[in-house]
Amino acid sequence: MAIHYHPSGEEPPPGTRWEHITPPASAAAALARELPAAVTVAADLAAPDAAARLLNAVEDQLGRVDVLVNNAAHCESPDTIDTLTADSLQRHFQINAIAPSLLTAEFARRAHGRPALCVVNISTDAARCFAGQIGYGTSKAALEAFTRAAALDLAASGIRVNTVAPGPIQTGWISDSDIGRVGAMIPLGRVGEPGDIADAVVFLASHQARWITGQTLQVAGGHAL
Length: 225
Prior knowledge:
Helices cover 38% and strands 15% of the residues. It is built from six helices and eight strands, in the order ββαβαββαβαβααβ.
């Protein structure tokens, strides 16, 4: 397994706040130590040649890639219609839609006829339209559209492409005082945990999902149905 991380923590422009977390290299290394034969690979996914360089680095250490999980994301605030700028849209779409599209294309070019390859993209229930998430939601909606289009294009090559769309997941951004309120908004009565999403990704990457492609699996406890 290869774990990607961003090599630097870029500061947001004035008046903008990053709503995503950029773990440092040490966090990626700590995770790699918990997994058998895992390695870490640094890459800035906004760079035009990031897809080729990232896959080259992984192949040099581990060999051919069988499963690609596009989990990196960009989210910032404010992200409303009245604060929308070309730069904010570019930042969202570059990481949330363009980078995973280019990674999938590069992954497919290296398939060389190997069977049972797959891509799992990570979207969000905000792709269905949430107030105050214009750039984030529309860029993730574009990723879901790409999933369907790529699934059709790559089906003849035996490459499956699917998406997991999480609901509210506690990765540290929900305060202790708010977690009960957020959980009450979800039909199954709790916020999600990272393991809920990981299990869905493992399923879509497994033999059990061998006849599933082009789908977006909502993993949200009934949120945003």
